[in-house]
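Hi C.,

You asked whether I'd gotten around to modeling the 702-residue construct. I have! Everything is below, sequence then structure, no commentary in between.
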Amino acid sequence: MSASIKPMTYFAFCIHNHQPVGNFPSVLEEAYEKSYWPFLKALARHPAIKLTLHNSGFLLDWIAACRQEYVELLTSMVKSGQVEIMGGGYYEPILSVIPEADRIGQIRLMSDKIEAAFGVRPAGAWLAERVWEPFLPSTLKAAGVEYLLVDDFHFIKSGLSRPDLGGYYVTEDQGNAIKVLPGSEALRYLIPFKPVAELKTHLSGLKGFLRRGNAAIYGDDGEKFGVWPGTEKWVFTDGWLEAFFSEIEANLAWLKPVTLGGYVKAEEPLGRVYLPTTSYMEMGGWALPPEAARAYGELADDIKKWNDGGRVSRFMQGGAWRNFLAKYPESNWMHKRMLGVSRMVEEAGRAGRDTGEATHYLYKAQSNDAYWHGVFGGLYLPHLRTSVYENLLKAEGCLGGKRAVVSAGDIDADGHDEVRLSPAEANLFISPRNGGSLVELDYLPKAVNLGNTLARWREGYHHKLAEGSPHGGDAKSIHDVVLVKEAGLERYLKFDARRRVSFVDHFLGPDATPGAFFANAHVEHGGFVEAAYEAMLTEAGVILSRDAEAGGGQTRVAKEYRLTGDASFSVAYSVSSAFIGALRGNGQLRFGVEMNLLLPCCDGPACYYEFAAEEKKDVPIGLGGSGELSGVSGVRLVDTYTGVALSIEVDAPCTLWRFPVYTVSLSEAGFEKIYQGSCLVFLFALAPEGLEAAFNIKAGGA
């Protein structure tokens, strides 16, 4: 940097540390040791460097309980003015997709926590995943937020150019004004991935580049400093962070470190802006359907190679965050269940009841990570989805009161009613519209959803798997590197066309095999999968029926879900068709009932299948095993770690196919195979007179 450059360029440095609710303690410990703690200690050695710091509420709670040395050092840095603490939604929700009262409640809860711990009330808020929608200023103003950091991408989508983004702007909704700062995309890719010399060149060139304002504004994830692949060695061992801080200190004559709050107090706004519905650029691609996501990514890469690519890219935008609710039906179901619980909490509050504990669990269930997927695990991580359901069920449990045993309503906002059966210790959610299937099965004593599965959805990045190779050398952005965690993942790239739910009805020919069914290469001989069933509610359950073609003739399938105890139910089937008998001469048509289930500990060593002694034979019984077993009268799925078990008894002997459902997804650590549940297919031979069979299901302790 040249000493002849005239003052003053501001350098506003903001770090966001976050861990999702439900993440493993070992993950938090590793992130702390690799990133959070060494970063804070390094910063303390350079008191001239100013930082705006955000730790999400779940992480802050863990640090306060387990790493008091961090709290003590941070408190001293806040008192000295080196660090400004930033607020936000306590459990890092996507603010725009939770109810208004919850938005304000989450932000105020975070502000109260920070004020109690550090003696100052935050003026700024971190916006989870920078997901912006134009109505948010009213919410933020009501919650006491003065300023917000988003990306320069947001401003460019509103028509501004990067030379105009050297400071903050004012935006408003219904006259409720807040200040918005543009975080620099260029800095996000420079820090900490490029040599400090390149960063020096960039900062020293801003005086000639910026038309409006005089600030270099950075805001991004703290995990980039030590947790992302290759960064621990690069940032700490090889000395990048020390060199970075030292270089800033060496140029204080013209480069002024400031907190975000300090900057907005020192300078006037550059003008007024209205930001469109958007997030950062990569999020726009991830939210698109797979083919569009791939095309979007390829186009973005192409534009970067054009001499005038910026002229086009400034007008390029992908999908909105809400698209994830269309892309993944599992996400939409969780989201709508969350909204339903929020309404329950609100109604209880209006009735004058104490909702404090229920609100706490509801807020935890709004943690954003489990609802979407990009290059981080997110929705693909079963333990994060498990945490969402656990907290929703605990919130419902806190509210108590008498529940309707049998009820109906449009839970997932698809325009069709679902049926809810609620005995004392369980919940069953049944979708007549989608094959009369069971989409959620809760065991309330353990607050677990045993139907918490994920289908094998095609992703826009799957084509990159063939290009994947272990990465070495310098640290890279997570967006620029392809890693493969194990060889041979390509063979698991099988895809589903629907959610993996239970009591899905199939008509299969004699040539259908477990392998073909696993690969979705089998032939359906009946029109019942995902089709609409008629529903009739009874005092103890619901009767569903459908008339459709099977094997070339009209066939009727009826099934009755009936509650039989506090945590037990039965599903009685009746299959009838005058045409079934005619098929026996050409090979017997079989009726299959598919179930998809997930235990809390997935396919770990604590989980296994348990068969009757005479049926077990020599088959592997781990949930990761596949196989075919004939003459089965039942099976038990057991999780000894959490003490959850599910027993399935069948009153007509059948053949059982079983296989684990593995997805192949992208995470910050690379492509990985993840167990998403076990698929069980109970096969019954169809006699000339049809079929009568009943399943008896009971959830309980292991």
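If it helps when you're writing up: The CA atoms of residues 168 and 268 lie 8 Å apart.

Thanks,
B.
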